[in-house]
Write a structure and sequence with these properties.
Blueprint: H1 2-21, H2 36-69, H3 87-116, E1 125-132, E2 135-140, E3 145-148, E4 150-154, E5 164-170, E6 175-178, E7 186-188, E8 194-198, E9 204-210, E10 222-228, H4 230-241, H5 245-254, H6 271-274, H7 278-285, H8 289-297, H9 301-304, E11 328-329, E12 334-335, H10 338-346, H11 348-351, H12 364-374
Parallel strand pairs: 1-5, 4-10
Antiparallel strand pairs: 1-2, 2-3, 5-8, 6-7, 6-9, 9-10, 11-12
Helix pairs in contact: 2-3, 8-12, 10-12
């Protein structure tokens, strides 16, 4: 029994060591910078860590030396010599800290001015980032593109230098934009515009989040930055600039006079609402995108959300024009697929408690229809 326990113990140690031996890279690791501001923060972090580490080990060594050298020994009865004041010691613990603080101040000031005063090239991408409870809105003013929660920017290289400059503000309370591998955090304040920039040099996905407590769902206000190749970024912009022309045709059909009106409904009532035309009435019960669009456009959804090319022009919630081009919903907390989208539409607070999006209390069929419609918004 004892040998089996010993064998299990060593097996556990070996497995633990094997797990620790694997490299673990956090998606929000400040020690893996991929842009110039993040490199500056990284170098400053190492500089500060070196100085503070040196202070820690020096003081620890002096403390251990004093404990060992001047410890009480058997037979000691006399009081040790007392030293009342030492000019050398006083000067040492005054001058050395002043020099260390001066070094830290100058190093920090150099990084701040290097990042804040960086010139803005003509080729720079400009993005306006607006913080909401609890999601992000991104506007590309030169491209007339609006999206939410997932920021797309082009990669920047020595051959094609194109940094991204962000103007940051808040629609409600204080937020903070923080993607550690790209740059340090910058606050978003109501009625104020702050600025930051980064020039990502490696294509990939970089994660961040709001770094300032902004309410009960602050911890789920996540952030995703996609660094694309120049060609992929241009393709994404072109896709985001398209509108749903077919949706305009569907809206026009709603104004066609009802050929078979029923008492109690105006002549121009859409047949699917009046329930007078058999085929269209049946279509209104089908779980299809056209049926879902009609439900969506006749609910309060359009007061908060925009879908370009339709009557939906709300500004309070995220723009849904190209919802399915995003990998996640609810500010990055859930995968953007049918099941999560249906759950989000049915009751947002079930997926994200304290979300400001209310449950509309629609029927299960209506929720399915809206989901079918939203799945077509690419």
């Amino acid at each position: 029994m004892r040998s089996s326990r010993r064998a299990a113990f060593w097996a556990f140690l070996l497995s633990a060591n094997a797990v620790r031996a694997e490299p673990i890279l956090s998606p929000t690791n400040i020690f893996a910078p991929v842009s110039t501001p993040a490199h500056e923060v990284h170098s400053l972090s190492l500089f500060v860590l070196t100085i503070t580490g040196g202070i820690f080990f020096t003081l620890s060594a002096l403390l251990i030396y004093a404990l060992v050298r001047f410890r009480s020994r058997p037979g000691d009865t006399a009081e040790p010599p007392q030293i009342f004041g030492s000019t050398q010691i006083e000067l040492a613990w005054t001058i050395i800290p002043v020099l260390l603080i001066t070094m830290l101040f100058l190093g920090t000031a150099r990084v701040i001015f290097a990042v804040e005063d960086a010139p803005k090239p003509k080729a720079a991408l400009e993005v306006v980032a607006i913080g909401h409870q609890f999601w992000w809105e991104f506007r590309y003013p030169h491209y007339n593109v609006v999206t939410a929660n997932e920021l797309h920017v082009p990669v920047s290289s020595a051959q094609s230098y194109r940094p991204t400059f962000l103007k940051l503000t808040s629609a409600d309370v204080m937020h903070s934009f923080w993607v550690p591998r790209l740059a340090g955090k910058t606050d978003l304040l109501p009625n104020r515009v702050n600025e930051m920039w980064f020039d990502p040099q490696v294509v990939g996905l970089y994660l961040g989040q709001c770094a300032q407590f902004c309410g009960p769902e602050h911890g789920k206000m996540l952030l995703r930055v996609y660094v694309d190749t120049p060609a992929a970024f241009d393709a994404w912009i072109r896709a985001q600039q398209t509108t749903h022309a077919d949706a305009k045709g569907a809206n026009a059909a709603l104004s066609v006079p009802n050929p078979n009106p029923v008492a109690g409904f105006p002549v121009n009532t859409p047949p699917t609402l009046g329930g007078t035309n058999g085929d269209l009435a049946n279509n209104s019960q089908a779980i299809t995108a056209p049926a879902g669009q009609q439900v969506f456009e006749h609910q309060a959804c359009i007061n908060c959300h925009t879908v370009a090319g339709t009557v939906a022009n709300g500004r309070y919630g995220p723009d849904l024009t190209h919802l399915m081009s995003r990998d996640t919903i609810a500010a990055g907390i859930a995968k953007n697929d049918h099941d999560h989208l249906l759950r989000w539409i049915t009751d947002p607070n079930d997926l994200k408690p304290a979300s400001l999006m209310p449950a509309m209390h629609l029927t299960d069929r209506q929720n399915e229809q809206i989901t079918a419609y939203l799945l077509t918004l690419r």
